[in-house]
Design goal:
The chain is an alpha/beta fold. It has 13 helices and 11 strands. The protein is 35% helix and 19% strand. Strands 3-2-4-7-1-8-11-10-9 form a 9-stranded mixed beta sheet, sandwiched between helices. Strand 2 (48-52), helix 2 (65-71) and strand 3 (80-83) form a beta-alpha-beta unit. It is globular.
Length: 390
């Protein structure tokens, strides 16, 4: 079987936030329509589609969601598959689309992520999301994802010392970036004291350390490289797309992103690069401690040294290796099924120089890391996607 070069032709992205009165078919089709139009692709050109979606309780269309959305834009009569892998659902959908094109099975494929999370009571939404962890064991004890992040933060600080102020600075950074992103959910101007004085959620995680629950959709048109080059002036190439699940060992090191380390090494090997070659990064910052630990899991810093990237300014928008210029989950928002492809959208815009006020200077290579779920404290899945403008 011959492997083909794969490129992202273009992307589409709805607003993220509390999209009151809008159903998934409305904002989902809006993202797909933008992706198709900007790719110079007709609905009939799409050969198959993969849709990342968790189907939360706030969502009326819980099944055949891809068919319902794509019907709105005229993409019908093709294979349409829903992919669920907790918060990494749409990255996994993107990877399935990538493999279909890479293998030569298809020429042009659509990857979508979509979710509606608002419009139900918070306790209902939290119980729903608890199913992304070990529902039979941890869920029965009342564990939530912010509870898990609190435990990880405490384990990290027991191992490496207090980084409470650096975590607050990550929140400040991501909100500042989000203010430059017109599609972001939380448009907040906050400082360190605002974060440190916000309501405690799960010690030491405070309200402004945590991402919001959001509605939204994102889409990407993926094609063989030679076809993408005919459709747009500057396709963005997929240099690596890797995913691994946890090993769930008895001795889990809560202070270490071992799953990130393994999947990142696979992706770096596939792309033929290392962490020092990256120009822009999007990571899964459902809580600020998550972002800091992903620095280390991805090899941007040694173990225990993630906070140094914050203190030095390296991860800031104008720093050596900007992280989450979109605002991340923290500010852009986290409609769980859409987050992964939203990260891809940001990298495409950054690598094309189309990110506006949050544009990173002259990036060539970008990486997106997206996590999904957890079992016995270890990630259910971690994905790494590497894109370049060559």
């Amino acid at each position: 079987m011959t492997e083909h070069e794969v490129a992202v032709v273009n992307v589409g992205h709805s607003d993220f936030g509390e999209l009151e009165g809008q159903q998934v078919t409305e904002f989902g089709s809006r993202a797909v329509r933008e992706a198709l139009l900007s790719s110079n692709v007709e609905p009939d050109d799409i050969e198959e589609a993969y849709i990342g979606n968790v189907a939360t309780t706030a969502q009326d269309q819980t099944s055949v969601i891809g068919q319902a959305i794509l019907r709105e834009v005229g993409v019908t009569g093709v294979p349409i598959t829903r992919v669920e892998n907790a918060c990494a659902s749409s990255t996994c959908a993107f990877q399935e689309a990538y493999k279909g094109v890479q293998s030569g099975e298809s020429d042009i494929v659509l990857a979508i992520g979509v979710e509606k999370m608002t419009g139900v009571p918070t306790e209902v939404a939290l119980k729903d999301m608890a199913g992304g962890a070990d529902a039979e064991v941890e869920g029965a004890m009342g564990m939530t994802f912010m509870g898990l992040y609190g435990m990880r933060a405490n384990a990290y600080m027991d191992q490496f010392g207090n980084v409470r102020e650096e975590l607050a600075d990550i929140a400040v950074k991501n909100h500042a970036n989000g203010l430059k992103n017109p599609r972001a959910h939380l448009q907040l101007n906050v400082d360190r004291d605002d974060v440190l004085e916000s309501r405690m959620i799960s010690d030491p995680i405070r309200l402004l350390d945590a991402c919001p629950m959001s509605d939204g959709a994102a889409a990407a048109v993926i094609a063989r490289g030679e076809i993408a080059e005919q459709l747009v002036e500057e396709p963005i190439y997929v240099d690596a797309a890797e995913m691994l699940s946890g090993e769930y060992l008895e001795e889990v090191k809560f202070w270490r992103e071992e799953l990130d380390e393994r999947v990142a090494q696979k992706a770096y090997s596939e792309a033929g690069i290392g962490p020092d070659d990256l120009d822009v990064v999007e990571v899964h910052d459902a809580a600020t401690i998550g972002e800091l630990m992903h620095y280390e899991g991805l090899g941007l810093a040694d173990r225990g040294e993630g906070a140094s990237l914050v203190r030095s300014g390296d991860v800031m928008l104008n720093g050596r290796i900007p992280v989450n210029p979109s605002g991340g989950l923290k500010s852009r928002g986290h409609p769980v099924g859409a987050t992964g492809v939203a990260q891809i959208c940001e990298l495409v815009w950054q690598l094309r120089g189309e990110a506006g006020a949050r544009q990173v200077e002259n990036p060539s290579i970008g990486l997106a890391q997206n996590s999904g779920g957890a079992l016995v404290g270890e990630g259910g899945v971690s994905t790494v996607t590497i894109l370049s403008n060559r």
